[in-house]
């Protein structure tokens, strides 16, 4: 990960990434008049980044935009990414960020875009890694050291989540996902316990066990907790992430072509909650957080659960399986039921749950819905606007629940062909009595092409959003 350090001294020989709000502030940089004028001409045309190559030294300038705070911050992130891509193309290893304005969030947003944009996943490539940007020094009086440390903790959590999502199932089984969570727990100071198949069986998690029946690898159930002594909440915030390390669709095999190529990403919900609790613990947020990640591998093996099967869930409810590719809601249901013992104030489910969510809003945001009070959805919306991990709220009318009634069991795991993202979400409240916010991240979790600082492949979506929610929950007291 690209390293950031704060400095109080300008480095005249280094490439510069500059953020300013007034083009006149360019005079404070040691530039020749012609070079300064060249940058000013670009800024007049509202360029995201104005660039001047001065005998091989890159000076890149972003003028902080007007309009809503959310879009101004996002534009700064995009500028940071664009600057870093130029540095990487030029094979630079170090550069300096200089702020000529006094708005800390905008400065930090530019740094955020730079670091997240510099991410790459190349651990399986042989030979020497390519030269890439390694260090950025930050000259910004308005940024406090604590703010930068917090940002670095979030960077690390997002990159860890991206690594987990990008890792193929050949290197990340359900048990291995549990081991990675344990490593992050030791590194960041939160507790981790991983239940094995025998313990999962003893708990009666019929959904998780059924989904994993066709796999040669055992399932895992990951329990994480960050409980600081100064927590502002008497009851924890519960995060539940779908951990399907690979999903063929089981006996309801996914159609080809290309429908299974990216299914290593079906544990992006688990990666998000692991990343979020990692960042919360690293930053010592005064919020009690519990995170659960049921992990499995949905395959059409000899013992695979079949359409028509009736499953007895952890809660005792029975579910008629009408589609083995609607497996995510089954493992989340067991986790929600298990989570009842924590008596949470708010429960989040995070999952690449439905293709319907992606068809509804594309890759530009996360579908959300649930039973939580408006206050909690308001906190989430504010966090989403700040991080630009935007959310689109769906209706949650009772009629959608009617579609899940079964003739032979308590409910079935599929509704009609319409509004699939909502009927999938509607399945979940049957397994918890707590206020629920469901996040369907199927669209933005894994991209086919780069979107500014969101790389092709795993994006780590949900980590920044959930961390910002928890941070705002801490401030709300």
Could you characterize the architecture of this molecule?
The protein is of the alpha/beta class and 477 residues long. The protein is 36% helix and 20% strand. It has 14 helices and 20 strands. Strands 7, 8, 9, 10, 11, 14, 15, 16 and 18 form a nine-stranded mixed beta sheet that branches. Strand 15, helix 11 and strand 16 (391-393) form a beta-alpha-beta unit. Helix 2 (69-89) crosses helix 3, helix 4 (145-166) packs antiparallel against helix 8 (268-282) and helix 5 (174-188) runs parallel beside helix 8 (268-282). It is elongated and about 80 Å long. The two termini are 33 Å apart. The model has no long low-confidence stretch (mean pLDDT 96).
Separate helix tally: 14
Low-confidence stretches: none
Percentage of residues in DSSP E strands: 15-25%
Structural class: alpha/beta
Mean pLDDT: 96
Q: Could you tell me the radius of gyration in angstroms?
A: 23 Å
> From the structure provided, what is the oligomeric state, counting identical versus distinct chains?
single chain
Shape call: elongated
What is the count of β-strands?
Answer: 20
Distance between the termini: 33 Å
Largest sheet: number of strands, sense, barrel closure: 9 strands, mixed
* Helix proportion range: 25-40%
Topology:
Elements (H helix, E strand, L loop, with lengths): L2 E4 L9 E5 L12 H12 L5 E5 L2 E7 L5 H21 L4 E7 L3 H14 L17 E5 L5 H22 L7 H15 L2 E5 L1 H7 L2 H7 L7 E7 L10 E5 L1 E5 L20 H15 L6 E10 L11 E3 L5 E3 L7 H12 L6 E6 L3 H7 L4 E5 L3 H14 L3 E3 L4 H5 L8 E2 L7 H8 L8 E5 L5 E2 L9 E2 L4 H14 L1
Parallel strand pairs: 1-6, 2-4, 2-5, 5-6, 9-11, 9-14, 10-11, 13-17, 14-18, 15-16
Antiparallel strand pairs: 3-4, 7-8, 8-11, 12-13, 15-18, 19-20
Helix pairs in contact: 2-3, 3-4, 4-8, 5-8, 7-9, 8-14, 11-14
